[in-house]
Amino acid sequence: MTIAYGVVRPPGGEPRVAARVDGRVVDLSDLGDAFRRPSLNDFMTLGRDAWRATTERARGLDGPRVDGECLLPFEVADYVDFYSSLDHATNLGRLFRPDSEPLLRGSAIRRPHGQRMPGPTFGPSTRLDIELEIGFVIGTPSRLGVPVPVEQALDHVFGVVLVNDWSARDIQAWEYQPLGPFLGKSFATSISPWVVPLDELAEYRVPLPPQEPPLLDYLATDPWAYDLELEIELNGETISRTNARHLYWNIEQQLAHLTANGASLRTGDLLASGTISGPERDSSGSLIELTWNERFLEDGDEVVLRAPQLQLEVRGRITP
Amino acid sequence: MTIAYGVVRPPGGEPRVAARVDGRVVDLSDLGDAFRRPSLNDFMTLGRDAWRATTERARGLDGPRVDGECLLPFEVADYVDFYSSLDHATNLGRLFRPDSEPLLRGSAIRRPHGQRMPGPTFGPSTRLDIELEIGFVIGTPSRLGVPVPVEQALDHVFGVVLVNDWSARDIQAWEYQPLGPFLGKSFATSISPWVVPLDELAEYRVPLPPQEPPLLDYLATDPWAYDLELEIELNGETISRTNARHLYWNIEQQLAHLTANGASLRTGDLLASGTISGPERDSSGSLIELTWNERFLEDGDEVVLRAPQLQLEVRGRITP
Question: Is the domain of A58 the same as that of A160?
């Protein structure tokens, strides 16, 4: 019975924090001021003991239930997108560099315009794609100038969302050297309306084989991943089944790396895993990998990303 | 008599918005709620007519004056760092790719740790550098999905700050391919405590020669730049004199580009110009260019960036 948190606006009412408990959506606004807010951020600042106590209470609450529209669950502070799937990195390297080594709930996604090659010409992207990712939401901030040790990293994480990092491959391929992606990514990012608290994921943790090459001390941890099933559905058809265990770097290591130079964490920071691809073609996390550069999104296409064990999904439909 | 806005906290008092008028710092908190705030953001949302009216009033105000500590002048929403100086891009390309073509006021800057080559080994950066830039602050937001036309771009800009984009060249050189800089940049960015309203810069606008290759329509404007003198001082010695007119792309074009894919502007967004370097060695905007990769910052070094005509400066001192 996985618990998740979100923000619900009942018809004619004010937005409030709600918990989804075994399919029921329970109004938490009686639990205190932090729950009578249009975002989870105040709740997220309360820290891990409060999160655990709330999850315990929410599990036991029999009501009141609440119906309404799900809103963006938290105000995003900074956003980092990692690159952690060895298979995705290998595939994209082969596709983009063949001569070398290889926020919102997501309803309508407008096809972005940009510079496309050959040319460049300016116009609508013809290679609109998805990226299947999981995202970690920071609850407890860290101090500027003080790196977070790898073994304390999870203390800062409030929970997990599913992420679709919409990508325009034609814009991205032309713009991204040498300073990285920009307009090929910045037009839209969708997250699931429900956030699963991190504690709920403990049962999915599995050990991984040792990492090669050996790790620098600040990244050293017994390797592990979340064994979470993930799916991509395009117009009603499941086109990929993959798993978060394919990520080479885990969230502990990503947090230690992100803060190694003294950069701080803020409540609401969203750390996305990077695209999750497995070793088989049909376990890829993007269309460019699934179709090996042959098919992209058409106007009207609907994409649903799912994490069935967590009952998380992200939906989006392409508009011109 | 250039006006600038900032946030000042008098001893024992609450932070409030102030204007610097010809060297005097004038308390604006009697002008309304938006001025009794610890940041400029509420004032920045009022729009261009209100900004102009306030500048007129501030010019005429004889008092009350206010003394105190200058705080970070606005809450930064999103941060973009462009790459707009042809000379800087050429220099960095030669230095990094020889074989191919907190935001705080900036007092103490801790030397960041990270992965350095050869190795990689983990430890303090040995190639800590500066980047001299100007930054444009967004006042009026734009609508998601609606690109800002190049000729309307300036309507969204509240004002200008001076920016030091501290950079660890050893970390950056190893990490930045293929996805761009990350920990080599994210440890610190300093801005001037005073923001000069955009209208004050009109007198410095100068035309530039036509851009080559010809511009795509969405970027097409009669080329221009701000003829603003800029200086870098290291431990009391001026080591570079350069000028914002060396920027190949202007802020109108940067804004049109940034929003071309439908990405929106938010109040508080900071758009930094990218490092400003001129054609001569001693008109460069970074140490790596000024010393051609031979000297970087030592512990205890103090760097001051200045825009003398606007009376803007950014100071920082390196600590271990």
Answer: no
Instruction: Please report residues of A whose CB lies closer than 8 A to that of B171.
Output: 261
Q: CB–CB of B165/B185 below 8 Å?
A: yes
A100 touches chain B (CB under 8 A): no
> How many A/B residue pairs have CB atoms within 8 Å?
93
Interface check A36 vs B, CB under 8 A: no
CA dihedral A64, A70, A71, A73 (to 10 degrees): 70
Q: Quick check: is A88 catalytic?
A: yes
Q: Is residue A234 located within the same domain as residue A140?
A: yes
SS3 B87: helix
Q: For residue A141, say if its preceding peptide bond is cis, omega within 30 degrees of 0.
A: no
Given a contact cutoff of 8 angstroms between Cβ atoms, the answer to whether A161 and A73 are in contact is yes
Query: In this predicted model, what pLDDT tens digit does every residue of A45-83 receive, in sequence order?
Result: 999 999 999 999 998 887 778 889 999 999 998 888 888
Instruction: List, for residues B35-88, the tens digit of each pLDDT value.
Output: 999 999 999 999 999 999 999 999 888 777 888 999 999 999 888 888 888 888
Mean pLDDT computed over A201-220: 95
Same domain, A136 and A214: yes
Alpha-carbon distances, residue B166 vs A125, A245, B102, B133, B194 (angstroms): 35, 36, 10, 11, 19
CB B73 within 8 A of CB B129: no
Write out the residue range of the structural domain in which residue A158 sits.
79-95+126-166+187-317
pLDDT tens-digit map of A107-122: 799 999 999 999 999 9
Query: What's the structural domain count of chain B?
Result: 2
Window B:286-305, CB contacts with A under 8 Å: none
* CA-closest candidate to residue B147, choices B236, B259, B270: B259
